[in-house]
Specification:
The chain is an all-alpha fold and 433 residues long. It folds into two domains: 203 residues, Growth Hormone, Chain: A (Up-down Bundle); 211 residues, Up-down Bundle (Growth Hormone, Chain: A). The protein has 15 helices and two strands. Strands 1-2 form a two-stranded antiparallel sheet. β1 and β2 form a beta hairpin. α1 runs antiparallel to α7, α3 packs parallel to α5 and α6 runs antiparallel to α10. The longest helix has 33 residues. About 1% of the residues have low confidence.
Amino acid sequence: MQEELKFNYGKTFLLGFGFFAVMVAWSVYNSFVPLFLANRFQLNPAAIGFFMTLDNIAALLLQPVIGSVSDRTRTKIGRRLPFMLVGAPIAAIAFVFAPIVAVPLLNIPVEARLPLFVACTMTFMLSMAIWRTPVVALMPDVTPSKYRSQANGVINFMGGIGSIIAFLIGGKLYDIQPQFPFWLASALIVVGVLLVFAFIREPKIYERNPNLEKPNLWKSLVQIFRDKQHDAIRIFLAIFFWFVAMNAIETFITLYANRSLGMSEGRSVTLMTLNSLAFVIMALPAGLIGGKIGRKRTISIGIVVMILVMTSIFFIPAGTLTQELFSLPVLGAVPVVGLMLVIAGLGWALININSLPVVVDLTDVTQIGTFTGLYYLFSTMAAIVGPNVNGWIVKLTGDNYASIFLIGPIFMLAALISILGMKSGEAKPGPVI
C-alpha cells in the first residue's frame, strides 16, 4: 500500500540538527583557526588566506562526488545516514586534537606542532566533506516538493542558531581557554548527528525500482548542457553569481568597516553579526513566502533588495554610514550601515532559503544527492573565485574596500537575469512513496 509523504515541522526541526552541527563546526573553524595560525604559528596573512581556502578546495573536489555516491548507496539505515555516521565522528575527534596541538600545552617546538595542526585540520576538512552534502540532501528526501522551501527555512534557521552559538558562546569560552570552543563544537557535532539518527527515518524510494540507472555527478553536469536543460543551467549560474557577491562581503566586510569607515576591529565584526541575526530571523518566513508567492519570485525580490542595499552603501558617505541609530542588548550601538546590513540579511534569506528547493525540484528522486552536489559545486567555486576576484579589484582600486559594494551588485544583477529566464523550479505535486 502506498503511503503519502507527509510534512512534519517537528521532524524537520530534528532533521535541522544535522545542519546545526555543520554550521557550529564551520563557524568555529572560520572564527578561531585564523587566530591560531597568526598568533600560535606566526604565519603571514597570505599563507593564512591560502590555508583558509583549503576547505573550499576540498569541498569542490569531494562534496559533489559524495552527493552522487550517496544517491547510489543502499543500506538498511538509508543512503544518507551512513555518511553522517562516518564523517561526523571523525570531524569531532579532529576538532578535539587540533587546539591541543595548536596551544602549547605540549612541550614540543612549533616546527613539530604546525604539521600536526595541519594534519588535524585537514582531517577535519575531509571528514566534513564526507557528510555535508548527504545531510543537506536528506531534507528533500523526506519532504514533499511543495513544502521544501518551508523545510529549508527550518534547516537554515537551525544552522543559523548553530552559528550564533559558535560566535557568542564560543567567543566567551575562547577567553577562558582557547581549546573550549573546539570541544564545544565537537560535542554538538556528535549530539546533532545522533539526534538525526535517532529520530529521522529515510524513505526507501529507490527500492521501488532497483533497475534505475545509477546517477553520476559529472555525467549529470555534462548531460545538463548537452540536453540544453536551460533552467538547470540558469539556476546553477545564478547560484555562482550571487555567492561570488556574498563572498566578497563576508571576506572583506571587516576590513571595509575598519579601513573605510574607521571602526574598531571588534565593532567591525559586529556588523556581520547583525547580518547573520537578520538571516536567522528571516529563515522561516522566507520559506513560507516562497511557498506562498513562488520560489523564483521570492528569490528575485531578495536579489533586488541586495542590489539596492549594496549600491546604497557604496554611494552613501562614510560619515552618514557610521551615525548611530539605536542600541541593542549585547550587540551595542547600531549604525546606519548596520541597519542596512540587517536589510541585506533579510534579502539574503529570501535568496538562500529558496534556492536549494528550486535545484532539487529540477530533477527526480534518484538524483537529489547529485543535484545537491552540483549546488555545492557551483557555490564552492564561487567561494574560491569570489575572494580572489574581489581581492584583486580592491587592490587595483588603491585598497578601496568600498569597491566590493559596487562589484557585488553587478554579480547580483547577473544572477537576477539568470533567474528571470527560468520556466520551472516551483513546487511539484506531492509524491507517493
